[in-house]
Write a structure and sequence with these properties.
Layout lengths: L4 H18 L1 H15 L6 H21 L6 H4 L3 H30 L5 E5 L5 E3 L6 H12 L15 H4 L5 H15 L6 H19 L6 H15 L10 H21 L5 E6 L12 E6 L3 E6 L5 H12 L5 E5 L7
Antiparallel strand pairs: 1-2, 1-6, 3-5, 3-6, 4-5
Helix pairs in contact: 1-2, 1-3, 3-8, 3-9, 5-8, 5-10, 8-9, 9-10, 10-11
């Protein structure tokens, strides 16, 4: 089997990704460099970036350099149509993630403007603005298959009892996006292939970790939209539609953060409580208590991160999880 230049680049990228995986220190260094693109603190994202990009280039190279290229299916491929389907499926997955996040909160009578933290079987957080619901199912599926994941890579499996089986959707959409994206590379120049593969990989990563409003989600979608709307000869007018779509998503994310922020206090909704809870030192008052949840109001100047860190230690093994209202201003 003969690979074209893009396919050879793909082989090198896969090798580099596996090297980063083997040498954890390199992965951490690369994560620092790529943080503006990948965001978050999860180990393994840089490895995933290189392996996914490389594999997409190799798959496309096989399709275009082997006997398969002579099939009527490949010859009649409309790469723009496949790119359109790819973008559509990515957006549907993003929206589905937000709907699952809302469903989780409605199920427990919690505000949509909260971050949820599951505290049993490891700690996993998720919110509308940075969702991990699909990541939890991927991690759960990997564990069922008996594949061992390094402890430094967070799989989010503790969220599964709260969201299963809805996130199983990603088990279908992830490979479909991958396949459609690979088909959309057909007949393009190498530089265009690299742009699409890079943007597509960021979208695939954000489908599992982060969602629509995450940095890789926004950047990846922007890259795919620019290529989709680009025409020959290229004009700056081609950037108007993708820019409007991306800016709308960014503004929507900021709007959710701002509208949901409360700088006066934090409401903590504890669910599936199994033991008494002591919140001494948090100036906490119970404002609601039912068979399914207890809502505490905390008057504090602590940041969201500080509250999560402190409460996770106090509530671990005493409940299934808890929701915390957020205050974006506490990070300023």
């Amino acid at each position: 089997m003969k690979l074209d230049r893009a396919g050879l680049i793909g082989i090198v990228m896969i090798f580099m990704g596996l090297l980063f995986f083997k040498i954890g220190a390199l992965d951490k260094i690369l994560m620092l460099v790529l943080w503006p693109l990948l965001s978050g603190s999860s180990d393994g994202k840089a490895v995933l970036l290189f392996v996914l990009m490389g594999s997409l280039l190799v798959v496309n190279s096989i399709l275009t350099t082997s006997r398969i290229k002579n099939s009527s299916f490949i010859k009649n491929l409309d790469e723009r149509k496949y790119l359109k389907w790819t973008i559509t499926l990515i957006l549907l997955t993003y929206i589905a993630g937000i709907i699952i996040e809302l469903w989780l909160r409605v199920s427990y009578g919690a505000s949509p403007f909260t971050t949820f933290l599951a505290v049993n079987n490891g700690e996993s957080s998720t919110s509308i603005t940075h969702t991990h619901v699909f990541k939890s199912v991927i991690g759960y599926t990997i564990s069922i298959l008996g594949i061992k994941v390094p402890s430094s890579i967070h799989t989010g499996v503790s969220l599964v009892p709260f969201v299963y089986p809805l996130p199983l959707l990603v088990v279908v959409t992830f490979p479909l996006v991958y396949i459609l994206g690979a088909l959309s590379l057909n007949g393009r120049k190498d530089i265009h292939k690299l742009i699409i593969v890079f943007a597509l990989t960021l979208c695939l990563i954000s489908m599992v970790d982060g969602g629509m409003f995450s940095q890789p989600g926004v950047i990846g979608l922007a890259g795919l939209l620019v290529v989709y709307f680009a025409k020959k000869p290229f004009s700056l007018k081609n950037l108007v539609k993708p820019a409007c779509i991306v800016l709308l998503i960014i503004f929507a994310g900021f709007a959710v953060e701002l509208v949901g922020s409360n700088s006066q206090y934090h409401d903590v909704t504890v669910v599936e409580q199994t033991a008494p809870i002591d919140l001494t030192g948090y100036n906490a008052t119970i404002i609601e208590s039912t068979n399914t949840k207890t809502v505490y109001r905390i008057q504090t100047n602590m940041t969201d991160k500080e509250i999560f860190s402190g409460l996770s230690d106090k509530l671990k093994d005493r409940c299934g999880g808890f929701f915390v209202s957020w205050n974006i201003f506490s990070y300023i």
